[in-house]
Amino acid sequence: MSLTSALSIAGRSLRATSFQTSVVSRNVSEVGNPNYNRRIAVLSSEAPGAQVLTIQRAANTALFRANLAAISSYEAQSSLRLGVDSMMQAVNGIDNAGSAATAMGSLYDALQIYASNPSNASIAERAIDAARQVVRSLNTGSEAINAARVDADNQIVDAIDELNTMLADFQAANNEVVAGTVGGRDISDALDKRDALLRRISEYVPISTIGRANNDMVITTTSGTTLFETVPREITFEANIAYTAGTIGNQIHVDGVPLQVGTGGNTNSTGKLAGLLQLRDDIAPMQQAQLDEIARGLINTFAEIDQSGGGGPALAGLFTWSGGPALPTAGAISNGLASRIMINPAMDSTLGGDPSILRDGGANGAAYVANATGGASYAELLIAFQAKLDEPLAFDPAAGGGAVASVMGYSTNSISWLESMRQKADQGQLDKQALVVRTTEALSNDTGVNMDQEMALLLELEHSYQASARLIKAVDEMMAALLQAAG
Questions:
Q1: Partners of residue 284 on adjacent β-strands
Q2: In the predicted model, is pLDDT for residue 378 greater than 90?
Q3: Which of 56, 130, 206, 439 has the most CB atoms within 10 Å of its CB?
Q4: Across residues 406-422, what is the average pLDDT?
Q5: CB 231 within 8 A of CB 240
Q6: Do residues 84 and 421 touch, judged by C-beta distance below 8 A?
Q7: Where does the pLDDT of residue 382 fall: very low under 50, low under 70, confident under 90, or very high at 90 and above?
Q8: 241 with 150: CB under 8 angstroms?
Q9: Burial, 210: exposed, middle or buried (Cβ in 10 Å; 0-12, 13-18, 19+)?
Q10: Neighbours of 313 (CB within 10 A)
């Protein structure tokens, strides 16, 4: 080997080592950045000497896709859990203090006290006030559910705006990747940017990716609907400014196709948008239906019976509704009844009514008076109402609170149903969060920066640099000696 060849090899080695060192230094500077993939300087060993060919970016497609799927599942679960927690507090209050079940317990006690002292007008008023609290719990619970559905719509609007912005950013990043690939430039930073956007997009909708020529990428939902192909596809949604019981919310359409929604407290929905839709269209309406059934049960439980023997229909007594005095249809959900239940004006002293009618009957006329003699110590009707609160009634199974139960038992079932939903949502979130952590760690271990590994590589590069420097020094000394000998 000639001295000039040796000098050329050493020089190329120094340049390659310098380039490798800059790549490793960049890796070290990005330690802890979850959106950075480790870079690797790839060398050739072709004569004369080493040469940097390209920079490779560490990647693991299978782990990355698993991480995207885990993120989508977690975000749907998190949205659902937050919504259920908020609904529980709004409908039932802290420790269920504002629930219909708690209010009915107070009414039960008030009836018992009134029955023991039926001539006391102030006790009669307290019984009516306990009934008012039952009505308030149902009215406010219904309002809270409708408000939760409106809030879900508002969150969906905000999320779609954010998603559209991210898709526009993805288009710019994807164009940069394609252009860099065609131009033969290092596209590692652009790929990092594109992958970071994919993670964020997967928070809102479940996605799959398809690679094309020149590192171009197509994004679809996991159900196959195109989300991005060269340009973002249209995502449409129209929020409702208000909800009432029975209102059907509008769908989210991706490229004209409705977004799929899952079921259950530990939901199989994926993506924040699907989680919000499930809360709005499944859990909230089911809780509303249970409140409506409680209201129907109360109206029927306290109904007045024709005492004249004329066969008149049972009519609304202590509790009535906008369709009163007729009773709601038995055994079937009456949409929005919880928001329309009220105290019978005939017994409501704030409306000029007489609370003692609760004891005597007659809110619907003389034929419905049970205390025919007008005795001040009459308590049979109060005792009967108290007993009926514990008697089984038929409820619509579609509401999810059971088919047969007492109205007090059904109100407790409703609390248990929502609490069970919350517990499943909590556990589901913990499980899915753990999966996100595991897939993120596995992906980071495979493609991220390991400080120990990088520092060891820097030490090797330092030794390589020193060897090349010594070779250059040796060649320089030999050439100097040669020139001196020739002189």
A1: none
A2: yes
A3: 206
A4: 95
A5: no
A6: yes
A7: very high
A8: yes
A9: exposed
A10: 12
pLDDT of residue 32: 84
Tokens of 369: 């008076």
Residues 212, 206: Cα–Cα separation, whole Å: 20
In DSSP terms, 226 is beta-bridged to 220
Return the HEC string of the chain: CCHHHHHHHHHHHHHHHHHHHHHHHHHHHCCCCCCCCCEEEEEECCCCCCEEEEEEECCCHHHHHHHHHHHHHHHHHHHHHHHHHHHHHHHHCHHHCCCHHHHHHHHHHHHHHHHHCCCCHHHHHHHHHHHHHHHHHHHHHHHHHHHHHHHHHHHHHHHHHHHHHHHHHHHHHHHHHHHHHHHCCCCHHHHHHHHHHHHHHHCCCCEEEEECHHHCEEEEECCCCEEEECEECCEECCCCCCCCCCCCCCCCEECCEECCCCCCCCCCCCCHHHHHHHHHHHHHHHHHHHHHHHHHHHHHHCCECCCCCCCCCCECCCEECCCCCCCCCCCCCCCCHHHHCEECCCCCHHHCCCCCHHHHECCCCHHHECCCCCCCCCCHHHHHHHHHCCCEEECCHHHCCCCEEEHHHHHHHHHHHHHHHHHHHHHHHHHHHHHHHHHHHHHHHHHCCCHHHHHHHHHHHHHHHHHHHHHHHHHHHHHHHHHHHHC
- Exposure on the CB side of residue 37, measured as CA atoms within 13 A: 23
Q: Quick one: what percent of the chain has pLDDT higher than 70?
A: 90
Which band of pLDDT confidence, cut at 50, 70 and 90, is reported for residue 57?
confident
In angstroms, the first-to-last Cα distance of the chain is 23
Here the tokens at position 468 are 């090349």
User: How far are the Cα atoms of 123, 149, 357 from residue 374, in angstroms, in the given order?
Assistant: 18, 49, 11
Asked whether the CA dihedral 311, 312, 314, 317 is positive or negative, the reply is: negative
Q: Which residue has the higher pLDDT, 368 or 468?
A: 368
Mean pLDDT value of segment 396-406: 92
The domain locations on the chain are 3-58+449-486, 65-435
- What token pair was written down for 37? 């993939």
Q: Amino acid identity, residue 253? A: H
The two tokens of residue 142 are 């219904």
Closest CA to 37 of 146, 142, 190, 144: 190
- Out of 11-25, 179-193, 230-244, 285-299, least confident range: 11-25
Q: Assign residue 329 a region: left if phi > 0, alpha if psi is -120 to 50, beta otherwise?
A: beta
